[in-house]
Design brief:
This protein is an all-alpha fold and 148 residues long. It has two domains: 1-33, no CATH class; 47-141, no CATH class. It contains six helices and no strands. The termini are far apart.
Length: 148
Amino acid sequence: MSYKSQHSEYDKDFYAWSLHNAALIREGRLSEVDLENVAEEIESMGISSKHALVSRLTILLCHLLKWKFQPGLRSRSWELTIKGQRFEIEDLLNDSPSLKHELENKMNRAYEKALVNVERETGLNQNSFPKKCPFSLEEVLKTGFFPE
C-alpha cells in the first residue's frame, strides 16, 4: 500500500488505518508505515494524557475547595469524588511517571479552572476563594487529606 493510499485510509477509516500500520510495524515493514501520521498520533496520545491529568486535578481541586469553604454541605459524594480523582491521578502517573512534572507545572492552571467550576457549582463568587491555591500539590494528592 502506498503512502498516498495510507493517508487516504487515515482520513477515511482511522480504525482500519491504525490496525494496518500496527501490523506493518510488528512485521518490521517500516518502509510501508505511514510514519508522519503515526508520529502525529503518538504525540496526540501524550497530549491527551496531559489534558486528562489536568482535568482530574481540576475536578479534585474544585471538590477540595467546596469541602473547605462549604463545610455545612459536605457529602459522601464529595468525599468519594475526591478519593476517586486521586486514584485516577495516581493511575495516570503510574502509567506515565514523566507526567508528574506536568502536574507541578499545571497546578496553577488547574486551580484557575477549578475556581470557575466551583463558582458555577456553588453560586459563590470566585472572590470568595483564595486567588492562589491554598493547598500544596503534596496535600492535594495525599490520601486522607481533607481540608478543614
